[in-house]
Amino acid sequence: MARALILAAGRGERMRPLTDHTPKPLLQAGGRALIEWQVERLALAGFTDLVVNHSHLGARIEEALGDGRRLGARIAYSHEATALETAGGVVQALPLLGPEPFVVVSGDIHTSFDYSTLLPRIEAILRHPERRVAHFVLVDNPPWHAEGDMGLSAGLVTRDTPRLTYANIGVFHPMLFAGIAPGTWLKLFPWAYRFVEAGRVSGEHFRGDWDNVGTPAQLAGLDRRIAR
Questions:
Q1: Does pTM top 0.85 for this prediction?
Q2: Based on the structure, what is the number of domains in the chain?
């Protein structure tokens, strides 16, 4: 059963004061909360069993999404008393995600990416984890991250240049996180680069609509584009 984790525990410092009283994933664009767009797109792609992690104002997220049924999903929640960052959040949620590869996406991106295309990636990782342990979706570098994160060569993610930007969309085998204690504060990068350097991460370049909503101005711009 394909599962996905939506990361929603960040404080959203650059979004203040909007995030002083509203968790960032509940900020609205196009008349809907950012995280609702994600839940619905994942559910439509076949990822109906979702885990949402949260910390800052997390109860508000649970109140807004409930059990997920109105959006076509079943949602379980992974609470963090203190936000544990990306990799730490995955580790904390592992008991809810199960033993098979799963998708991880951020709750504050908005994209037309078709999540169903990740199902074959999950199968490939499940069949041969000794070869591949993850799959990353990369996008063109936005103006605020012109240097990018990782390269792409013959379907494998590299650390070479030219570099693209990690889209905050990936598939991960749970074995990547073996040995990391729950409650550990850990960012996904640069920690995950070890698997890239070992040639065990496949990747793709997505050229469609993608927004990483980090500031009030970016949120307002996305809202205008959706309205059009």
A1: yes
A2: 1
